[in-house]
Amino acid sequence: MNIVNVRIDERLVHGIVATFWIPKLKIDRVICIDNKSAEEPMIKSALRMATPSHVYLSIIPLEKAINNLKEGKYGNERLMIIVKTPDILLNLRDAGIVFNEIVMGNLGIIDKSEERKSITNYLSVSKNDIKNFDALHKLGVSLTIQLIPDDVPSDFYELMKVKI
């Protein structure tokens, strides 16, 4: 298994992912792990259109992702895993899928509930998100803010702790 990048992004695949991250990291396959998106033909179609044509795209529910990754279904492909929320990544880690860094894309831009605490212009967290980020941090997973690959990364977890 060759997980090159793990990303939280409510929009899953979009312009920044397709034009900056995928080429820079030489990604062979993007795996969008989201139960709802995996069942929606229109969403799947839009994500396919946003993904570069030379890159494989899998839009699958969590359990299928865990099984596929554990079974080594993707061989030596360079994988980018994208999820909408941190709880999915905690579930992956609990299932034995190892990754050491999460790059933060967009979180909380779709759900604008008053309960969310703003961390940056494109990142806000709920109480449940904070709990999941704390658990990931305790597992040694670094949480990075980096809009595009050429930006200098900064520590999302420390910024979150300051802002909340």
UniProtKB/TrEMBL annotation:
Residues 1-164 form the PTS EIIB type-4 domain. InterPro entries: PTS_IIB_sorbose-sp, PTS_IIB_sorbose-sp_sf. Transmembrane segments: none annotated. The keyword Amino-acid biosynthesis does not apply. Keywords: Cytoplasm, Kinase, Phosphotransferase system, Sugar transport, Transferase, Transport. It is found in: Cytoplasm. This is PTS system mannose-specific IIB component. The lineage of its organism: Bacteria, Bacillati, Bacillota, Erysipelotrichia, Erysipelotrichales.
